[in-house]
Amino acid sequence: YYRLRTRETRLSEFNQTEIKAMLGSYSKVLFVRDPFHRLIATFLQGMGISPSFSSFVQEVLDSGMHNSSVAWKPLVSLCQPCLIQYDYVVMFGFLRQELGHLLHQAGLPVGSLLPELTDSQVQWTYRWLSEQMFSELSAQQKKQLSHFYHWDLAAFPLSSSFLSE
Fold first, then answer.
1. Which terminal residue of the chain, N or C, has fewer Cβ atoms less than 10 Å from its own Cβ?
2. Looking at the keywords, is Transmembrane helix present (predicted)?
């Protein structure tokens, strides 16, 4: 498959036989992050031009599912977990533990490649940020966000997400 060597070819550009051959020959890893945390990170990185988190969320909701940015689009629509059988699913917030296992399985050195922050620090920080940002949203926005990310919340173990509440 000559196109396998190109850097930016999308999976959708291959036929079914090529896709099946490629997916069967790779270890497939899916990195999952709470969709509300993804929204917060996107807002803090300045990818939205909104002055407040609430107005940014409204822009996201108004953009709809099909016009939304990859930065906040539901993960299920991006990575097709129902169609692709992933070998590993790594949850953000448990990166050190899960990446250590993944690197060990791949036969790579574990210690030197892992992030410096501990998972508990990351979890605490995002819990605090989530509380602050979630309080800015109206009841309707909270409900709409839960609906927008319904499939992500159903597909992945995100029970601690503010959107699950």
1. C
2. yes
